[in-house]
Amino acid sequence: MRLSRYFLPVLKETPSEAQIVSHRLMLRAGMIKQASAGIYSWLPLGYKVLKRIEQIVHEEQVRAGHIPMLMPTLQSADLWRESGRYDAYGPEMLRIRDRHDRDMLYGPTNEELITDIFRSHVSSYRDLPLTLYHIQWKFRDEIRPRFGVMRGREFLMKDGYNFDLTKEDALHAYNRHLVSYLRTYERMGLQAIPMRADSGPIGGDDTHEFLVLAETGESEVFYDSEITDLKFGDREIDYDSVEACRAVLEEFTSRYARTDETHDPEVFAQIPEERRRTARGIEVGQIFYFGTKYSEPMGATVVDTEGKQVPVHMGSHGIGVSRLLGAIIEASHDDKGIIWPEGVTPFHVGIVNLKQGDAEADAACHALYDSLVTMGLDPLYDDRDERAGAKFATMDLIGLPWRITVGPRGLKNGVVELTSRRTGESEELPPEQALTRIA
Ligand code: ATP
Ligand code: MG
Ligand code: MG
Ligand code: MG
C-alpha cells in the first residue's frame, strides 16, 4: 500500500477524552472513530489489525477441531424466555421491538441460540462430541463504556459452545479450549494467564478467565509470580488426547492465580512472600463448563448408549477479539506509539523515502516494495512529499515492526537503513540484505 493513496487519518493532538494509552494511540493512529458511546467505526488500519486477530483466533479454533459458523446479531426474546434469562439478564441487554410488536434483542452472548440449533438437529450421542463457534458482534449496554474498544457496547467476540454426552467429555472440551487459548494469545505476542474466576450470569461451576497483566486493567488479580514463567511455546499437542490437554491445564493452573471474586487470602498467604503478587489485569477471554444449565430447560437431549434421553453437557468459551487490540497496545507501546507484535501487525514493513521525486530513491523504494510483496509480506510505502521527521513520527506511531529508510546519500554507498521498532536499533545494509533480515 502506498501511503499517499491510503486512508490513515492520524491525529496530531492527543485526544483529551481518552484516559488510557491504548485508547489514545488507537485514536491518534487513525484506527478507530467513535460513532456513539461505546460504538466504533473501524478505520482501515484498525480494521486490518482486527482482521489479523480474528484470523489467528479462527486458525487456532480450527486446529483444536472446533467448527466455524455464523449466528445473527439479533435474536428473538422467546428463546431467552425459555432459559429464564430474558428477565434475569437486566439492563445490559438491548431490547428491541419490531414492527409486528415482537420482542427482539441484540445478542450479548449466544447460549440460547446455539442450544436451539443443537436441539433441532442433533438427537444421538453418535453425533457427539461437537463444538461450534462463531466470531460475531455482540451488544451489551454497559453502564460505563470506556477505554475505547476495551469496554465497548458493541464489540466483537469469538464465542464457542461444546456439546458432550458426559461431564467428563465436556471437561475435555474445557481443557482443549484452555490449550487453544494459550496458543492463540501467545501468537499475538501476549501473555494471558488463566485465573480461577466467578461465573457471573452465564452460570456454572468451572471457569477460568484469561488475564493480561496491565496497570490499566479493570480486574484486581492475585498470583504466584512463578506463573509468569510458564510459556506454551511451539509444543505440538494432540487435541484429541484427554491426558495431553489435562496435563496442560494442570501445568498452567497449578500456581495460585485468581481474580478478586475468587481470591482467598488464607490460601494466598501460604505462598512464599517474595512470590506473592497483587496486580491489575485485562480480561481477554473466559471459558466455562456449566453442565446442563441450558440443555435441561431448553430440552437439548440426545439418546445415550443405552437408549435413554439425556440432556447434553455444555460449556461456552469466549475471546474478546476487539478488546484484544487495546490489550495488545497496553502491553506493547512506548512514548512514540504502538509496537505491534509480528503476529498481528497491520503491515510488516514501512518504507520511508527520504527524497520523494529523486529518480534513484524512488526506483529503489519501488524495487524494495516489489520484492517484499513477492516474499509474501505486506509493506506500507510512505511516498508522501513530507519531511523525514514527519514520516518517522508516523511510522513510530503506527508501530510496524520494521522500517526501511531509503535516501540518495545511502544509495550512493549502496545501502539503506533498517530499523527495528522494538529495539530502536538501526543498521545500514545493502537492500538485499535488509530483505533477508526481515524474511
Ligand atoms: P467484563 O468482566 O470485562 O465485563 P465479561 O466477563 O462480562 O467481561 P464475558 O461474558 O466473559 O465478558 O465475554 C467474553 C469476553 O468478551 C471477555 O473475556 C472480554 O474479553 C470480552 N468482552 C466482554 N465485555 C466486553 C465489552 N464491553 N467490550 C469489549 N470486550 C468485551
Ligand atoms: Mg461484563
Ligand atoms: Mg468478567
Ligand atoms: Mg467473563
Automatic annotation (TrEMBL):
Its main location: cytoplasm. It comes from the Bacteria. Signal peptide: none annotated. It catalyses: tRNA(Pro) + L-proline + ATP = L-prolyl-tRNA(Pro) + AMP + diphosphate. Keywords: Aminoacyl-tRNA synthetase, ATP-binding, Cytoplasm, Ligase, Nucleotide-binding, Protein biosynthesis. One of its GO terms (molecular function) is proline-tRNA ligase activity. Catalyzes the attachment of proline to tRNA(Pro) in a two-step reaction: proline is first activated by ATP to form Pro-AMP and then transferred to the acceptor end of tRNA(Pro). Belongs to the class-II aminoacyl-tRNA synthetase family. ProS type 2 subfamily. This is Proline--tRNA ligase. The lineage of its organism: Bacteria, Pseudomonadati, Pseudomonadota, Alphaproteobacteria, Rhodobacterales.
